[in-house]
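Tokens help. Consider this.
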Amino acid sequence: MVMSGALAAAAVGLILSGPIAGLLLGLAAPMVARMYLSIRSGRRRAAFADQLDDSLQLLAGNLLAGHSLLRAMDSVSREAEEPTSTEFSRLINETRVGRPLGDCLDDIAARMSSDDFTWVAQAIAIHREVGGDLAEVLDTVSQTIRERNQIRRQVKALSTEGRMSGYVLMALPIGVTGFLMMSNPGYLTKLTQSPIG
């Protein structure tokens, strides 16, 4: 799809403006596609991280109700929101075809780039070897994740003013230059039409 998009962009650029524009548009298409995928995957990972504490609460509640671990994970796959439901559905399908549960959990942690879910995978792996009350462990991990998310949101809210100031300061020279080019075009000619400029 990226190659097709790059060829189409190059063809449009070639038809409209010539070979240089075609080459530039053809090279820009893969970068735009990569940026788009990066934004989408970042949003998906952020949504997974935001839903993780609720998913763990649901998992712990099912374990306390007497369900097995896989049955509790199946319940999470049906009742959780997207993308958590998709990831747990994939986990259930992989374990049904014989893949070890630990590997499936590690893959989810790697796909979602989630250190928090890595803790969950390790807690479940330790529980399967040693035993103990997994529901209580998951409840404790869920509370820890919830507190970390709350602190992360507070830091984000407090740093918003600084980030907005940075955006304004980055846009200010471009805005002032555009205003000067529109209101007094001769003012900037020394910068653009002389060797010193």
In short: Residues 134-183 form the longest helix (50 residues).
